[in-house]
Amino acid sequence: MLDELYSAEKLAAQNTLTPDELEQHVRDLFNDESLTPELRADALRILLDDQYAQDIADVLERLPNDDERCDVFNVLTPDTAAEVLDEVGGYTAHRLLSQLPAPRAASLLSRLPMDDLVEMLAEDIPERQDEILASMHPATAQDIRELLTYPPDSAGRLMTRRFVRANQDMTASEILAMIRRTNDRYETITDVYVLDPAHRLVGVASLRSILTAKAGDQISTFMEKDPTSVLPTERAESAARMLGRYDFLALPVVTPDDKMLGIITVDDAIDVLTQAQTEDLLGIGGMGGESASEPYFSVPIFQVIRQRFVWLVFLFVAGFITSGVLSAFQNELEAVVALTFYIPLLIGTGGNTGSQTVSMVIRGMTTNDIRQGDLWRVVRRELVSGLILGLMLGLVALGRVFLDDRVTALPVVVAVAVVAVCAWSNVIASVIPLVARRFKIDPAMISAPLISTTVDASGLLIYIGVAKLLLDAI
Questions:
Q1: pTM of this structure
Q2: Cα 60 vs. chain centroid, distance in angstroms?
Q3: Of the candidates 126, 299, 156, 166, the residue with the CA atom closest to the CA atom of residue 238
Q4: How far is the CA of 436 from the CAs of 167, 168, 290, 422, 432, in angstroms?
C-alpha cells in the first residue's frame, strides 16, 4: 500500500513540494478511508521526512481539527517536532502540548531557544508549567524559573542565557578553542562577552575581531569597553528597537550593577517588532486580544466572533451619541432640510482625517519619534496640517455644493464646517494616543473606537453650530 502511495519518483520529489501540495497530500491521507491508523501514520512519516518545519507548521494550522493536527505532529522526529512547535501559533501549540506526556513535552521544549521555551510555558500552556519543569534537567528548569520571574513583554523574558563569555586575560586562540569545544551550548556566537570575576560585563568583542586578532592577543586589548546594554525590566519592544537602531546582532541584558544575565538576539527582536506591528494594525481595527494575531484558520470561529462582538457592540452603543445629537437638533434640520444631505460628507471627512492622523501618530510613538513630552508640539503640528487640509477640501466642497445651491449660504456653511471638522479631527486624533499611553493603555486598541465616536458626534455639533451662525433661516 505504501509503495502505491509513494513511488520512488514521489519520494525523490518530496523535498520539492510546495506548501499547498504538501497540505493536499496530508489531506488526501486523512480522506483515504482504506488506510488504517498505523498505515496512515507510516505514510505521514514518509511524506513529512525532510520537509521544512515552517511548511509543516503551515499545514498544521490549516487542518480542520485537533485530532488530525496531533496525528501529524506525533509522527515527526523530535528535532522537527520542536521546530514545528516554535513555528505554530499559540493556540495550536497549546493543543499539541496538551496531549503530550510531561517528559516528552519537556524533551521537545528543551530543544527550543530559551526565550521561546519560556514564552510557551508562560503563555501557551501555563497550567502544565510546574509539571513540565519537573521533567526537565534541574539546571535548565532553574534558569527557566528565573526568567519567568520577569514581567511579561520585558527584556528579561526575551533573553537567553546561552551566550559566549570569556575572562579578560583569555587570548584569541584560547577563546576560539573554547568555542569549538562548547559551541552546542550557545544560541549565537556572533559576539563574545567579557566578564570580570564578579560576573560584571566589562566588554564585548565580535567573532570577526577575534578571528582577525593575533593568536596571543588578550581579548581585553581589542574588546569594546562599556558596551550598550539594557535592564531585564526594560520593555521587550524597546530593547528590540535598540537592536535595530544600533545595528546590533545581540544586546546584553544586565542588572543595575552590570552583572551579566543574558542576551537578546536579533531574530527575537524581529519577532517582537513584527508582533507589535501586527497588534497595532489589528488594534486600530478593533481586533485586539490574545488570539488576534494567531493564524487565521487555527482559532475557533466562535472565539473570533466573541472577540469581535465586544468591540462592535461598544461602537454600536456609542453610535447612539450621534443619533442623540441629530435628535437634539431636529427642529433646525427640519428648517433647512438641505443640511442633512451633507452630514455623511462631514462625518466621513472627519473620520478619514482622524484615521490618517492617528496612524501617523501611533507609528511615531512606536518608533520613538514622538515621546510623551511632545504632546503640545504634536497638537500644534496636527492643528496646522488639519487647517491646511481643511481649507483645500473646503474649497472643493464650496464648489460642489454651489452647483446644487446658489441661493442660500449653504455652500459657505459646508466649506467652513469642513475646515473646522478637519482641524478638530486632527487634534483629537493626535491627543488620544498620547493620553492613552500616559495611562498605560495600548494606543492602538483605544484610538480608533474613540476617534470614530468622538468625531461623528462632535463633527455634527460643529456643522450645526456653523449653520446657526451663518444661515439666516436658522
A1: 0.67
A2: 21
A3: 156
A4: 46, 47, 20, 22, 6
- Compare 239 and 185 and report the one with higher pLDDT: 239
pLDDT of residue 8: 39
Distances (CA, A) of 265 to 189, 251, 300: 10, 7, 33
Spatial separation of the C-alpha atoms in residues 83 and 112, rounded to whole Å: 7
pLDDT for 255-284, tens place per residue? 999 999 999 999 888 888 887 777 766 666
The highest-level CATH class for domain 2-153 is mainly alpha
What are the structural domain ranges in the chain?
2-153, 164-265, 301-470
For residue 106, what is its C-alpha cell? 519537556
Taking the alpha carbons at both ends of the chain, their separation in whole angstroms is: 86
Checking if the pLDDT of 12 tops 50, the result is no
DSSP lists the bridge partners of residue 205 as 192
CATH hierarchy code of domain 164-265: 3.10.580.10
Contact residues for 316 (Cβ-Cβ < 8 A; gap 6+): none
Q: Report the C-alpha gap between 398 and 291 in whole angstroms.
A: 46
Comparing 2-153 with 164-265, is the CATH topology the same? no
DSSP letter string, 322-383: HHHHHHHTHHHHHHTGGGGGGHHHHHHHHHHHHHHHHHHHHHHHHTTSS-GGGHHHHHHHHH
Say which CATH class 301-470 falls into. mainly alpha
Q: In the prediction, which pLDDT does 71 show? A: 94
